[in-house]
């Protein structure tokens, strides 16, 4: 039997709660998982309006060919007879490697490419300059492990299709990507191969894999069998988030409604949720598998990935030998881009831009 006893009082739990609130305020974001972004109805309607305009324009015109007459871009640039490459930068931070990309673009004719930037509007980003100036498209928030990254890529595709009918290839680029060859080398690779194929359709360069130890968990990330009947497990694919698509495949992406209904659903198992790595490979594998190479032009090192992020290269690793190694592939083609590089790699990369990177 206790010698002393204290009267119970509601004051003690009240004080405890009040003292806990500041702690929860400061530590909560680091303890609780972030709320996943979902696709809102207004955002969906905005995108559908954009997609419908791009679809209507694309279907009213022929696919870009070398004999097309000169046209004028909706952003004001004058097009030429030759097909173009649309470089689409998807970023949620500053474009740290803009100076390197400037060298890449400045070594070729400005009428052979267009640039489009989707920059997360919730993050303050240093305004791009030079050839990147005024290239940010109307953008919306993005978040990892959410369908917003799919929406951003589709938004870029539709904008580029609507802007210039001569955009024949659409290369999705990360802010952590660097070029591994000159623009002329890339251009020749994409379009000379087309000539060698005797005017057959262009091929899309997108990784499409049907085997992965995590595939089943990712397929059920939204709940068991939620993806059916639109996508059965044997149709589910995985691939790189970054790709180089033909115009006809870009059109298929923005026309799609059926698969999007499932891929836009929020994930229950966030750790297995990488929608952007599955939507594009799955859709194009189902729609036109023979029109895709099933490999990407972007080299990524997954040997020591951390929390779903690939190996990040730092300045001590940057060398001419690294560039030559990153170009190598298991096929007859060469990789054209590489990621992931830390921002402080810019200086050593710029030092060997002319002598190594753009010397093909």
Verbal overview:
The chain has 360 residues and is α/β, with parallel strands linked by helices. The chain has a domain at 41-62 and 72-298: Spore Coat Polysaccharide Biosynthesis Protein SpsA, Chain A. Helices cover 35% and strands 9% of the residues. It contains twelve helices and seven strands. The protein has helices at 11-31, 41-59, 98-106, 148-163, 183-196, 215-219, 247-255, 260-263, 279-287, 320-327, 346-351, 353-357, and strands at 84-91, 113-119, 167-174, 178-179, 244-246, 298-300, 337-339. The strands form two sheets. Strands 2-1-3-5 form a four-stranded mixed beta sheet. Strands 4-7-6 form a three-stranded mixed beta sheet. Helix 3 links the parallel strand 1 (84-91) and strand 2 (113-119). The longest helix has 21 residues, at 11-31. The radius of gyration is 24 Å and the shape is globular. The model is unreliable at 2-6, 27-32 and 63-80 (pLDDT under 50). The chain crosses the membrane at residues 12-32. It is a single-pass type II membrane protein. This is OLC1v1004801C1. InterPro entries: BC10-like, Glyco_trans_14. It is found in: Membrane.
